[in-house]
Amino acid sequence: MSNEDIKHDDQNLVPGRRKFLNTAALAGLAGAGLSVGLSSCKQEAAAPAAAPAGAPAAPAAAAHGAAGDLNLHPAPGQLDTYYGVWSGGHSGEVRVLGLPSGREIKRVPTFNIDCMSGWGITNESKAIIGTKADGSLKYKTGDTHHIHGSYVDGTYDGKYFFVNDKIHGRIARIRGDIFECDKITEIPNIQGFHGIFPDKRDPVDQAINHTTRVFCGNEFHIPHPNDGRDADDPTKYKTLFTCVDAETMEVRWQCRVDGNMDLVATSYNGRLAAANQYNVEGGAKYEDMMSAEKDACVFFDVGRIEKAIKDGKFTTIGDSKVPVVDGTKEANKDPKTALTCYVPVPKNPHGVNASPDGKYFICSGKLSPTATVIELAKVEEFLDGKLDDLNKSIVAEVEIGLGPLHTTYDGRGNAFTTLFLDSQIVKWNIDAAIKFHAGDKNVKYVVDRIDVHYQPGHISADMGETKEAGGQFLAVGCKFSKDRFLPVGPLHPENEQLIDIRGEKMKMLADHPVYPEPHDFIIVKREKVKTKQVFNVDDFPNAVKDAKDSGVFREGNKVTVKLVSQAPAYSLRDFKLKKGDEVTIILTNLDKVEDLTHGFAIPKYDINFIVNPQETKSVTFKADKPGVYWCYCTHFCHALHLEMRTRMIVEK
Fold it and tell me: What is the C-alpha separation between 414 and 444, in angstroms, rounded?
């Protein structure tokens, strides 16, 4: 099949693979009872693919060729110019890529157990993940979806990256200087924690121009409290929008709303946060979740919410001490005092994204072929009592294609939206769309389309959700790879694709198979991230700072073994325990050389972890198997790496 067979012309979907994919997708949705939800979708583009009238002048098209100027294939020893920070999906991890090459640099264990690093095995990591009373992990699974970085003055500062766990309602923080998780918080009173976004400026103190809060959307509505009461009455189910302190990672407050929340966005001035919503109907069955033609994007006036809490206008739920305010429509009818307002958007929207100029939030229809552009200044005017109709905040609602999901930006006035059913990305101009919506039907707001493979979801351009949107390239996550890579059985890799967006026309650059199932990601300039290559030994209270401090220290049947590692030896050649001892091993890597990591594994005791230069970790276990156990270094460190061992002798 030629490329011509799968192209999208100005008005119609050309038969071929595109038709087959759409037919299969639509048939599947119809089989699920969704055909009524898509009945209004058209099979033609909203406007011909042409340069938008009145749009800002696009930069001169780059000399694409093999796209070597984007450095897709760095020479040996040459570094990438961007970090890509990826969610790992139901692996529970976060991944770090070099871009534009697409090389995977690191996997950051977060909500998962990692056999290499010892995450979920060491005492330090267990304390972050959370444990039961017996010391075992509270949860062994996680589902990371959305990841976003902290901001200073409207752009990434590289300090933190925040990611959600949808399964268990947790938020994790990744330190940008070491790309390791340092905090995990379980959010009370919710299920299905999905969208996440940091604030870009303090909503109360405008002098604070960096991230102080992280907002969390709640997807599944449940009874409050969820203790068995009202289980059979979905009319009493609600969701909660949650604010988490970016530094302490403690939950500040929650706001009860109508409808299920998907993703989250924040304004550049700090005042507003928002979540796109589906199921404003409050249905408990999927057919009830799409009966309405309009859902909503709910806006939160953060300063008003915090003032209400300060004034004592809140409740709590069950045993939780977190203050909860009422953000439902019924309780917020007066705009001048409202904590929330609900902008109607069609239909089962998927995604809300802030434009780099700070003017707009864009929601995609998913079950409507439209994108809705909401002007934030008008939302603020409504909340200030200066706008009589909230619908006037909608400055464009235009058709862009079938199954629109997520949007990113190039900083030149153009938006790029994934079309799940069309298996395409559509490039469209925001100002032109606003003019078209206002009545100028001669405006051509669709600039370009490109086929992707296949069924795209999330999308992100370089620095695309900051005021420094670069407009160089974007990455798109495609849910099905089908025939793109060597077959490996029923479970296919997903396909991450890289696209050049410097010119008027988009150009496909690369395919990358990825282990399922990543969701969202951000692309950050390399210079924004300042990493440390060696830990500071003083940062670890239990560090063994000198080999002479090594030894076995006993208090009854509780034993502490202190060790240091310096290539190619541990400080103790052997150590003796008694059967039944509760043992804590503390290991400090005293090597100061960058990239000189040591491992520590104990056969038959299910223990393995690493210590990086100047780092300390510990494990606790019961010595319940008498015998000799060779503890060895698992991470290559020296020519005598194989000889780097110590004997653990457990006496009867």
Answer: 13
207, burial (CB in 10 Å: exposed 0-12, middle 13-18, buried 19+):
exposed
The pLDDT value given to residue 288:
82
One-character DSSP codes across 564-593: EEETTEES-SEEEEETT-EEEEEEEE---S
Contact criterion met (CB below 8 Å) for 427 and 506: yes
User: How is residue 312 annotated by DSSP?
Assistant: T
**H-type helices in 56-210, by residue range?**
123-129
513/528 Cα distance (integer angstroms) = 27
Residue of 380, 376, 381, 370 lying closest to 355 (CA atoms): 376
Which tokens in the block code for residue 564?
């240091």
Contacts made by residues 622-627, CB under 8 angstroms, sequence distance 24+? 622/580, 622/581, 622/582, 622/583, 623/559, 623/577, 623/578, 623/579, 623/580, 623/581, 623/582, 623/583, 623/650, 624/579, 624/580, 625/579, 625/650, 626/579, 626/650, 626/651, 626/652
CA 339/CA 304 separation, integer angstroms: 6
- CA-closest candidate to residue 625, choices 580, 587, 584: 580
Please give the Cα distance from 436 to 451 (Å, whole number). 25
Query: What pLDDT, on the 0 to 100 scale, is given for residue 366?
Result: 92
Helix, strand, coil percentages, rounded to 5, for the chain: 15, 40, 50
Residue with tokens 């009818």: 333
Give the strands of the sheet with 180-186, arranged side by side. Answer: 147-152, 155-165, 170-175, 180-186
Q: Detail the DSSP E strand segments found in 145-294.
A: 147-152, 155-165, 170-175, 180-186, 191-198, 213-220, 239-245, 251-257, 260-266, 272-278
The Cα–Cα gap between 649 and 641 comes to: 21
* pLDDT for position 67: 54
Q: Output the pLDDT for position 428.
A: 98
Question: Which residue ranges of the chain lie beneath pLDDT 50?
Answer: 1-21, 23-66
Radius of gyration for the alpha carbons in the chain, expressed in angstroms and rounded: 27
- What is the three-class DSSP state of 426? strand
Report the half-sphere exposure of 647 (CA within 13 A, side-chain side): 9
Burial annotation 456-491 (CB, 10 A radius, 16+ → b, else e): bbbbbbbbbbbbebbbbbbbbbbbbbeebeeeeeee
Q: Tell me the pairing of strands 558-566 and 582-589.
A: parallel
